[in-house]
Every structure is written in structure tokens, then in C-alpha cells.
Amino acid sequence: MAVVAAAIVVVVLVGLIAGGILVLPAHTTAPVTISYVDLEIKQGNTSAGVPWLGRGFINYTEAEGFPLQVAPGGTFSIVWENIINLDDVPHTIYKVTPNPPFTIASTVPPLPDTIAVAGEGNLGIYVGVPSTPGATYAVTLVVDAQNPS
Fold first, then answer.
1. Residue ranges in the chain assigned as alpha helix (H)
2. Strand partners, 128
3. Within a 10 A sphere around the Cβ of 125, how many other Cβ atoms?
4. Residue 109: phi, psi to the nearest 5?
5. From CA 56, how far away is CA 17, in angstroms rounded?
6. Whole-angstrom Cα distance, residue 20 to residue 149?
7. DSSP at 56
8. Nearest Cα to 118, choosing from 81, 83, 86?
9. Torsion over CA of 33, 77, 87 and 146, rounded to 10 degrees?
10. Pick from 103, 104, 122: nearest CA to 113
């Protein structure tokens, strides 16, 4: 008798699923949360004591859309806007290094990129996110405008 009752329950459940009445939950992966991003610019100073490319530190927070949720293993972007060479010689941005476990997927323009005297520009930085679902991180990106190595 118990076997017949179990068989009837299974048949009814399969019928409800096949008819779209009973829906199984979809498998979802928790996003990675980026709480904020700090951009640290390694650079020298002009003869007047002013940093070559302006500010040496930029914090991207709520005003720039953070916290941000990204799919595990995905990417997000940061744009360093209005880079101005305040020196009387050109300066090159050589590389961007993130804190682990992040990676740099790409930059626009590609690096190295030279900012001419009195030149202006922007740098788009595409950051690769770790694949740990549900994790929350603060990200530090170090922009190197001093050393070509």
C-alpha cells in the first residue's frame, strides 16, 4: 500500500512539474560585492612641488556607484578622468597593479601611455574579479607613472 501511495505522489509531482505548475528554483550564484575602489597614483612632483598628473589618490565610493555587485569571475571598470600633465616634460603611465586576488583585464588606452606636456586624457581600467561567490572586497589599484619596469 505504501509503495502505491509513493508512486502516486511521484506521478502527481512529475505531472505538476511538466505542466509548469510546480517550478523548481533556478540555481543562482551570489555576486561579488566591491565596496569601494582606491586609486593610488605613484608619480613624482614638478619643480614647483605639484604632482605630475594631479591628485595622487582617488577614492571611488557611493557617489561613483559603489558598492557594486559583479558576477564571480567577471569584470568591472573604473575610469580615471581628466588626467592632466602639469609638468614641463611628458610623463608615461606604465602599469596598473591591483591588490590580490584581483587582476587587470585591460586598460583603455593600452599601457604604457604617455601624457604630453599640458596634455589631458582618461584611463579606463577593467578589473578582473575573483570567482568566490558572495565575497565582499575593497580594491586598491596602484597606477605607476614612475618606473618602466
1. 2-18
2. 75, 103
3. 22
4. -70, 165
5. 59
6. 60
7. S
8. 86
9. 70
10. 122
Q: What is the pLDDT along the chain (149 residues), one digit of tens a residue?
A: 777 676 676 666 666 666 667 666 666 789 999 999 999 999 999 999 999 999 999 999 988 899 999 999 999 999 999 999 999 999 999 999 999 999 999 999 999 999 999 999 999 999 999 999 999 999 999 999 987 76
CA distances from 79 to 4, 32, 103, 135 (A): 65, 20, 16, 23
What is the H or E stretch that residue 79 is in? strand 75-84
Total-model pTM = 0.80
C-alpha 102/C-alpha 105 separation (Å) is: 9
Q: Is the peptide bond before 90 cis (omega within 30 degrees of 0)?
A: no
Residue with cell 500500500: 1
Pull the grid cell for residue 34.
566591491
Look-up: residue for cell 596634455? Answer: 119
| Sequence ranges of the domains in the chain | 28-144
Peptide bond into 110 cis (omega under 30): no
